[in-house]
Specification:
The radius of gyration is 34 Å and the shape is extended. The strands form 2 sheets. It has a 4-stranded antiparallel β-sheet with strand order 1-2-3-4. It is α+β, with helices and mostly antiparallel strands. The longest helix is centred in the first third of the chain and has 50 residues. Helix content is 53%, strand content 12%.
Length: 394
């Protein structure tokens, strides 16, 4: 067969030979393209390659596309004029947020009498009237008069059996334990201390002073420390950075300052004592050494890392401060104004509803992607690294 093939090729016209060579080259090109497509599909299914690609794309965000360089000089001049207008917009926005801060201060004074009364009820300094205690729940609206009377008698019987508590015991501790962001900071040894927390207040900087706010934690006399108030001040900035004015997006917390806690001897929950055994190299004798080391505690919140004048921090300090700023902002914006709803859990349910909606949207998108894959005639499940739905762990 080989001789016949060679003979046929020898007898073929040279023009025909050129046609054959062209066809072979085309077929070879198609094979290479097919292999390239398969390789691309395999690469795109590799999580590590996708992560590296995403990182590269993230690095390109905001980078010049080359379009600006291609513009005529006169157009570039006009774009520069727009940029100067944008800087002026940023300065006006900064003034807007300064006035918002003034409004916050004004309305804080209106809220404060209500928050003071809340504190008086929590600490048993004031007993609310029957009229002030009236609150219709959805369940009560559905009950008949007979059922309401029975429920009232049952409650009165329970109250007689229990000791009469003062105010609302462990109000703020319960709030903290109900909020994930704060409960993550709490340790078991913090709880006896926080049972003495009576109120949290927000204080804004005075007019004409640099923008800031303070959180004040008011405690009743206790065995742990002599302070009646523990405070923390967050210093803010509401002006564009001259070196990068386009990054301005409202006030930002620049630093925070805590306070010194005057701990009673032996009651400092931010420190713990450990014992270590040390062996003498020469004699071989063993001795026990007692050391005092830092301890995880909510009260470390009052000793944040100091921000140096140059503003440079190591990664650990940056992470701690970022979390600290988030917590301080959350206490100011959510916890203090809506404390009772975090105590009852109603505010937490609202927060969960927000997250559920996002989750449902994500699930829908994932479902759409899976449906697209199933409808794709070129889709091959064997090449997909994701196991089928029935094989995934629940």
């Amino acid at each position: 067969m080989a001789d016949i093939d060679n003979k046929d090729q020898a007898e073929m016209d040279p023009a025909d030979m050129e046609d054959v060579e062209d066809v072979e080259e085309e077929e070879t090109g198609e094979d290479e393209n097919s292999k390239a497509r398969q390789l691309t599909v395999q690469m795109m299914q590799n999580p590590q390659i996708l992560a590296a690609l995403q990182e590269r794309l993230d690095g390109l965000n905001g980078s010049p596309s080359g379009y600006m360089e291609s513009l005529p000089k006169v157009v570039k001049r006009r774009v520069n004029a727009l940029k100067n207008l944008q800087v002026k917009c940023a300065h006006i926005e900064a003034k807007f947020y300064e006035e918002v801060h003034e409004l916050e201060r004004k309305y804080a004074a209106l809220y404060q009498p209500l928050f003071d009364k809340r504190s008086e009820i929590v600490t048993a300094a004031y007993e609310p009237t029957d009229e002030e205690c009236e609150w219709k729940t959805d369940e009560e609206e559905e009950l008949t008069d007979e059922m309401k009377e029975k429920a009232k008698l049952d409650e009165e019987k329970k109250d007689e059996e229990k000791e009469n508590p003062k105010g609302i015991p462990e109000f703020w501790l319960t709030v903290f334990k109900n909020v994930d962001l704060l409960s993550d900071m709490l340790q078991e040894h913090d709880e006896p201390v926080l049972k003495h927390l009576q109120d949290i207040k927000v204080k804004f900087s005075d007019p004409g002073q640099p923008m800031s706010f303070s959180l004040e934690f008011h405690f009743e006399p206790n065995e742990f420390f002599t302070n009646t108030v523990l405070s923390k001040t967050y210093k803010m900035r509401s002006e564009p950075d001259e070196s990068d004015p386009f990054s301005f997006d409202g006030p930002e917390i620049m630093s925070c300052v805590g306070c010194t806690i005057d701990w009673t001897k032996g009651k400092n929950v931010t420190l713990k004592t450990i014992k270590k055994k040390q062996k003498h190299k020469g004699r071989g004798t063993v001795r026990t050494v007692t050391k005092t080391v830092p301890n995880d505690s909510f009260f470390n919140f009052f000793t944040p890392p100091e921000v140096p004048e140059n503003g440079e921090l190591d990664e650990d300090s940056e992470a701690i401060l970022a979390a600290d700023f988030e917590i301080g902002h959350f206490i100011r914006e959510r916890i203090v104004p809506r404390a009772v709803l975090y105590f009852t859990g109603e505010a937490i349910e609202d927060d969960d509803d927000d997250y559920d909606e996002e989750g449902e949207e994500a699930d829908d998108e994932e479902g759409e992607e899976e449906a697209d894959e199933e409808n794709d005639p070129d889709y091959d499940p064997k090449k997909d690294g994701t196991p089928p739905a029935e094989c995934r762990q629940q």
